[in-house]
Design brief:
Layout (H helix, E strand, L loop, with lengths): L2 E6 L6 H7 L2 E3 L2 E4 L2 E4 L6 H11 L4 E3 L3 H14 L2 E6 L7 H9 L5 E5 L5 H15 L7
Parallel strand pairs: 1-2, 1-6, 6-7
Antiparallel strand pairs: 3-4, 3-5
């Protein structure tokens, strides 16, 4: 069954990398013009860039909530022995706190504060995927 490596959408990995390494993604929420979208699910990067160009406003984000993390971890545990999930830096969001609260309900689910955003976050996720593929245990 193995270890599922997952991350918040702020890791900004390309869809090709997500698919190639089967990285699980938990989408943050993007708020623009009084509408809320799930990052990468209800709005693409291209659509987001277009809206910013059209309005001149960048919008804001909202953290993944505890319930979303609980659903994600429950699904991942159906097919994997363990989960290692990387969040956006706790200095920038409460995702780490929310994921940690959700993970408390599931054995062998580990939450890692990436202490990064975007590419830095993504590189840590890819390194963890390599470690998992080579047989490293989740707690390692």
């Amino acid at each position: 069954m193995g270890v599922k490596i997952s991350a918040d959408s702020t890791c900004d990995l390309s869809q090709a990398l997500i698919d190639a390494y089967q990285i699980g993604i938990t989408p943050l929420y993007i708020v623009m013009q009084n509408q809320t979208y799930m990052d990468g699910v209800e709005i693409t990067r291209e659509e987001l860039f277009r809206k910013v160009a059209e309005t001149g406003k960048i919008g804001s984000t909202a953290a993944v909530n505890v319930e979303d993390y609980e659903k994600f971890f429950a699904e991942a545990k159906k097919t994997h022995d363990g989960v290692v999930h990387f969040t956006i830096s706790s200095d920038m969001s409460c995702c780490y706190q929310n994921a940690s609260l959700a993970a408390a309900e599931y054995p062998n689910v580990y939450i890692v504060d990436s202490r990064n955003l975007s590419t830095g976050h993504g590189l840590v996720v890819l390194e963890a995927e390599r470690c998992a593929r080579e047989g490293m245990e989740p707690q390692e």
